[in-house]
């Protein structure tokens, strides 16, 4: 078994809107996530005084982060991916001056991480933006939002320049194609013209943030973040191979722009044939030349693509993938494909020749607490073991990988349906879907397993089969 590199960054990943809670504390404004109490695919709900939802408290990471970071340090984390809630810094999104209380919270958070030798990996926008920007400007439909985001990015780069050396711009940027309000602040029924124009503005903002980061923190590295929804051809029929190529390009497009600095030719054809005419200015093309330092991505499952229209009805899940008949599925119907992670790592490295960072990978499952207070989760251990084996194989293939942050290292509110019963963590949080519980933290069996993997640099992993 090849040892993982000594400088490989081990850790976990979480998002402000799924973990912090304290949703209006210390001057924070409403975010788009705050008006989606049933999850990213749920209805938009106008908030009224006195109402409450599970995400409003979440796991109370806002107040309990010292305890949680100590647990992460006990596992041996050298990296923790977190996000900054944009509306903690600029509550309405368009202010000139930031909210000092919001900035101070992240100072305390990053200082606590540094105290334990944990490197912050910070996402600027993780499935949320100030709700007021959607109300006043139409979200990312407006070019003005580019400047608001750049102002926010420059503010936090300047504030945390000595504390944060790894940054990401937008979480799973391609998800806006499936959840427009979550991704770009547009109504859920927005057409492709509107969504792609908003995404163009977001891509320009991302590139401007790269420029700002390089200018303000010369020794930092900044990357993009893709949802790695890789598809295989369902069969070796040329039509299926071509369809898999087409579907993979729907998410690779975002990597191509951010890593290569321009729109690829295949997207220009797609826009032409779809009747989409984007407002792309000369200044935008110049901005987009600022490319990311590394590619980061989430990987949970693979799927198949078929040109057979009769199989379209079988396509399911968020990404509309045709099920792979050779793979098992989780309780939530997500197909489990460890080898797909190695395939994706090689695919991205061959395509971009830039360092890669696996910033989300994990298994959502129901856990049971035994009468003696323990949580036995061999299914989670097996999942992580098999995927990390494939990461080691990709390293052996010559792929440059900066690190691995599991989703999520502690139980948190799930993004899709805002529930606690779908648990990902190595650490159990006593909280149910109705928000009842003590919030007590407990180490699962997987906690000790992951600790040993990190300590041994992968030597304790068991080869597949």
From TrEMBL:
Q: Which InterPro entries match?
A: GH, GH_1_N_CS, Glyco_hydro_1, Glyco_hydro_1_AS
**Which keywords has UniProt assigned to this entry?**
Glycosidase, Hydrolase
- Which GO terms of type biological process are on file? carbohydrate catabolic process
Which family would the database say this protein is a member of?
A: Belongs to the glycosyl hydrolase 1 family.
Protein name, per record: Glycoside hydrolase family 1 protein
Molecular function via GO: beta-glucosidase activity
PROSITE patterns under this entry?
Answer: GLYCOSYL_HYDROL_F1_1 (PS00572), GLYCOSYL_HYDROL_F1_2 (PS00653)
For this record, an example GO cellular component is:
cytosol
> In this record, what's one Pfam family?
Glyco_hydro_1
Q: Which residues form the active site?
A: 360
To which species is this protein native?
Answer: Chromobacterium rhizoryzae
């Amino acid at each position: 078994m090849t040892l993982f590199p000594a400088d490989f960054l081990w850790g976990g990943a979480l998002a402000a809107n799924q973990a912090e809670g304290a949703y209006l504390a210390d001057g924070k404004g409403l975010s788009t996530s705050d008006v989606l109490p049933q999850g990213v695919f749920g209805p938009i709900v106008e908030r009224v005084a006195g109402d409450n939802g599970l995400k409003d408290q979440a796991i109370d990471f806002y107040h309990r982060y010292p305890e949680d970071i100590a647990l992460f340090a006990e596992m041996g984390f050298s990296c923790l991916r977190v996000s900054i809630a944009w509306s903690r810094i600029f509550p309405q999104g368009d202010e000139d001056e930031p909210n000092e209380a919001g900035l101070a919270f992240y100072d305390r958070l990053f200082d606590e991480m540094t105290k334990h030798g944990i490197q912050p990996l910070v996402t600027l926008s993780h499935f949320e933006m100030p709700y007021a920007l959607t109300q006043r400007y139409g979200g990312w439909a407006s070019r003005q939002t580019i400047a608001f985001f750049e102002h926010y990015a420059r503010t936090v780069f300047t504030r945390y320049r000595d504390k944060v050396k790894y940054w990401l711009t937008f979480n799973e940027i391609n998800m806006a194609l499936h959840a427009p309000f979550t991704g770009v602040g547009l109504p859920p029924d927005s057409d492709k013209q509107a969504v792609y124009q908003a995404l163009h503005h977001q891509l320009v903002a991302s590139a401007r943030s790269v420029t700002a980061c390089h200018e303000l923190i010369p020794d930092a590295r900044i990357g993009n973040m893709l949802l790695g929804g890789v598809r295989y051809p369902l069969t070796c029929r040329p039509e299926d191979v071509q369809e898999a190529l087409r579907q993979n390009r729907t998410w690779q497009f975002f990597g191509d722009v951010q890593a290569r600095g321009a729109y690829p030719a295949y997207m220009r054809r797609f826009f032409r044939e779809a009747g989409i005419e984007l407002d792309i200015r000369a200044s935008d093309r110049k901005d987009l030349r600022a490319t990311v330092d590394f590619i980061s991505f989430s990987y949970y499952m693979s799927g198949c693509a078929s040109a057979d229209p009769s199989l379209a009805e079988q396509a399911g899940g968020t990404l509309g993938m045709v099920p792979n008949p050779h793979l098992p599925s989780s309780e939530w119907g997500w197909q489990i494909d460890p080898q797909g992670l190695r395939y994706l790592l090689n695919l991205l490295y061959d395509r971009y020749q830039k360092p890669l960072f696996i910033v989300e990978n994990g298994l959502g499952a129901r856990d049971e607490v035994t009468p003696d207070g323990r949580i036995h989760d061999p299914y989670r251990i097996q999942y992580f073991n098999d995927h990390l084996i494939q990461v080691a194989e990709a390293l052996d293939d010559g792929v440059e990988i900066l690190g691995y942050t599991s989703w999520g290292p502690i139980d948190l509110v799930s993004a899709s349906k805002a529930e606690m019963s779908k648990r990902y963590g190595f650490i159990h949080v006593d909280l149910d879907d109705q928000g009842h519980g003590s919030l007590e933290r407990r180490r699962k069996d997987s906690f000790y397993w992951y600790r040993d993997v990190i300590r041994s640099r992968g030597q304790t992993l068991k080869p597949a089969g």
